[in-house]
Amino acid sequence: MPGTTTEKLVANINYACGSGLADCRAIQDGGPCYSTDIIKVANYAMNAYYYSAGHEDFNCYFDGSGRIVYDDPRLRISLMKQTGSFMKQAGVLEDTIEFEV
Predict the structure, then answer these.
(1) pLDDT greater than 80 at residue 68
(2) Residue 19 neighbours by CB under 8 Å, 6+ apart
(3) Which terminal CB of the chain, N or C, has fewer other CB atoms within 10 Å?
(4) What SS3 class is residue 23?
(5) Are residues 24 and 17 in contact, defined by beta-carbon separation less than 8 angstroms?
(6) R_g of the chain, CA atoms, integer Å
(7) Please, are residues 90 and 101 in contact by the beta-carbon 8 Å criterion?
């Protein structure tokens, strides 16, 4: 959740990775998803826990600091740009709006 403290994110990482359910090897130093960005690390750990624990809403609660996101807004924007370009080429749209994310 927006506004979650660093301390809470670290606690979530420790809980998720220490549970024995989430495989957190990828976010360890030298792993393919290793990052110094605590938000990215927490996101990975919390997602890994959620999926391994059974996709239940309560597995994403993390004491009020987690939430289920059903789509990635970056993906939606990318798809909109691709669809807009395709529709423009097909003659359906006269113009598209280009923007950076």
Answers:
(1) no
(2) 49, 53
(3) C
(4) coil
(5) yes
(6) 18
(7) no
Query: Given a cut of 80, is residue 42 above it in pLDDT?
Result: yes
Taking alpha carbons only, the member of 40, 92, 89, 46 closest to residue 65 is 46
Best CA proximity match to 21, nearest among 65, 69, 61, 55: 55
Tally of CB atoms within 10 A around 6: 10
Please report, as a single letter, which amino acid is at residue 61: Y
Please state, in angstroms and rounded to a whole number, the distance separating the CA atoms of residues 40 and 44.
Answer: 6
28, 21 contact by CB (below 8 A): no
For the entire predicted model, the pTM comes to 0.65
3-state secondary structure of 42: helix
Amino acid symbol at 65: S
